Amino acid sequence: MLSSSTAFAQQNNVFVEQVGSGGNINFTQTGVGNAIGNPSVAAIVNGTNNTVSISQIGNTNISVLNIQGDGATVNSSITGDNNNVTTLCGVTGACAGSQITNTIIGDGNTVSQTTEGFTVSTVSINSNNNTVNIQNISTAVSGAKSSVDITSGGGNLVEIKQAGAAGPSGHDVELTIVGATNNVDIRQGGSVDSKVISSVTGSGNALTIKSNHQ
Predict the structure, then answer these.
(1) How many whole angstroms separate alpha carbon 155 and alpha carbon 51?
(2) Model's pTM, two decimal places?
(3) What is the pLDDT of residues 65-106, one digit of tens each?
(4) DSSP string spanning 115-161?
(5) Which of 11, 87, 89, 116 is most exposed, with the fewest beta carbons within 10 Å of its own?
């Protein structure tokens, strides 16, 4: 199964409900409104082992994606302007063994990832207003893992909460912020396995880390 959507210099609003396994779903939007789903109606990808690739360049650049199925790979690349990226994985279905990656270069930013099941969440932002919220809830033995990298300043404000079971190498966070107003809140669940590596350099600062904490 292969699905592709490309739009240029229009309102560029895409609503999708994709059902099937082992597919490659590609979205490319350039200029003006650029939206895949919206806060009221998410784009839905239902099935196992699907790969979703999103490329949005310039202007509003909104995506709201609901993944329903194990083994998903989501790669989202956003360049410029207002930005607002929301990914749900396993909230209304399965999500085990999935990887969610959001890369944003510049402007408004706001990334929200909510996942259930063993997932790897990665966010990279360079830079401007920033705001990252990752909520990983897993009952899998190895829990969930997150990595956030923000460079070149910006508004910053990161919240990472990883709850549920631990086990061999469960619960994992790596965070790097270089500059601007900062405000980091990291909370990891029990029992025992929990690894936080954090590096914040410069500006407002304020850091709360609670490990092995529900």
Answers:
(1) 31
(2) 0.88
(3) 999 999 999 999 999 899 999 999 988 878 889 999 999 998
(4) EESSEEEEEEEESSS--EEEEEEE-STT--EEEEEEES-----EEEE
(5) 11
